[in-house]
Amino acid sequence: MMVAGEASGDALAAELVEELRPALIERLARPTSDPQPVSTGLAPDFFGAGGPRMAAAGVELVADTTVHAVVGLSEVIRELKTYWRLYRSLLSLAEARQPDVVVLVDSSGFNLRLAAALRRRVRARRGTFGNWTPRIVYYVSPQVWASRAGRVLGMARDLDLVLSIFPFEPGWYAERAPGLRVMFVGHPLLERHRREGAEARADKGAGSIPLVLLLPGSRTQEVRRHLPVMVETVQTLMWKWAIRARLVVPNDRMLLESRRYTSAVSGLETRVGGLADSLAEAEVALACSGTVTLECAFYGVPSVVMYRASWPTYLVARQLVQVRHLAMPNLLGGERIYPELIQGEVTAENVTREALDLLMNGDRRAQIRAKLTRVVASLGAPGASRRAATAVVNLLEQGTLSLRAGLRG
Question: pTM of the prediction?
Fold first, then answer.
């Protein structure tokens, strides 16, 4: 059973399924001393909730969760009934189909609660004929090291394995929950973007007009809060500097949302998808804080990082967040590599000032790229999805659950 909550989780889960399916088939076909070996023609079933990438990978979906992806307190409250119905339906589905392993991908606000509820239901069923004991895996460690560290106790109680994508996370967990199994598998984005940033940038013609990318986010609320400021910034930059500008959004739904802000802007190109190709061309990016900042880092693109939330969400987060930086490249590098603007700082004037400095200062861009090279190197080698799949298969083999016996039954 696979559960992902938004576009990035949908992609991660799909990539894991593509590696996990052949790994399980190969394991089932391996010679064994079992006197009644399983037929090599068997293949694992995948079902759950996610998005179009998971569906394309062969996951039987009961809900498309990517259309409900939200961030922030007020947005979650508005969608509470939807999430509650999904939560109950997934619990019932798990109990009915009894998967051998449940893989929860990102979306910690929803998935950690789902993991706890699954554990409670499994315990309640124990007894005569109550032998369902699923392994629960969490893929992409929740950022408990950034806020609400106390959640680690519930994770240790409910999870069998956490698959980490940042190198510092296993050590952090080991100090606070030694009994929780945490494995660093590397970052999946390294597999998606196989070309090194320097090699990708070599394709950009010398002396070409610099390209500025607008990356406002993958959620409707993010586009509404960031894109107007980005558009105003680009209009000012076009007046002061010879640049090209391109908006990149992940899907058609976000493209439709963005048109209300971009339709009157002359010279602004828009694209759906193809982020890697655009990053290979870009000189500078204006980016919403999130996974995309690491993608900018992989391609050595100096970026102005911003994040604006609803004020209730911001006020709560300010009390909980315990890290010094918002952008992940800054956190991994231990310094302010990318300029960051948060909440009230996200104004066209501030963003324009930071973007102009990056465009006009070649030495600064070169220093940023050198630091980004070290950040990317810290994330390990490509192959995160393959290593994650191997870890899931090993977990099934090492536990009391017999995958072969379950499939025979």
Answer: 0.78
Residue 178, Cα to own-chain centre: how many angstroms? 25
| Domain 2-188+383-408 top-level CATH class | alpha beta
Contact yes or no for 271/306 (Cβ under 8 A): no
User: Residue 12 burial (CB < 10 Å; 0-12/13-18/19+)?
Assistant: buried
Residue type, 151: R
SS3 270: strand
Give the span between the Cα atoms of 368 and 386, in whole angstroms. Answer: 31
Residue 377's identity, in one-letter code, is: A
Using a pLDDT cut of 70, give the percent of the chain over it: 83
Task: Name 247's bridge partners.
Answer: 214, 270
Judged against a pLDDT cut of 50, whether residue 37 lies above it is answered with no
Token look-up 């997934």 returns 90
Distance (Å, rounded) from C-alpha 409 to C-alpha 404?
Answer: 9
Residues with Cβ within 8 Å of residue 270, at least 6 apart in sequence: 246, 247, 248, 249, 255, 258, 262
Q: What are the C-alpha distances in Å from 15 to residues 6, 100, 191?
A: 14, 19, 10
What does the DSSP assignment read for 157-169? HH-SEEEESSTTH
Whether the pLDDT of residue 401 is over 50: the answer is no
What would the pLDDT profile of 325-355 be if each residue is shown by its tens digit? 778 899 899 899 999 998 889 999 999 999 9
Q: What are the structural domain ranges in the chain?
A: 2-188+383-408, 197-377
CA gap 242, 346 in Å, rounded = 24
The CATH H-level (homologous superfamily) assignment of domain 197-377 is Glycogen Phosphorylase B; (3.40.50.2000)
- Contact between residue 28 and residue 407 where contact means Cβ atoms under 8 Å apart: yes
Structure tokens at 314: 């911001």
Distance CA 237, CA 265 (A): 13
- The CA-atom distances, in angstroms, between 294 and each of 187, 205, 289 are 10, 24, 9
Segment 102-129 shows an average pLDDT of 87
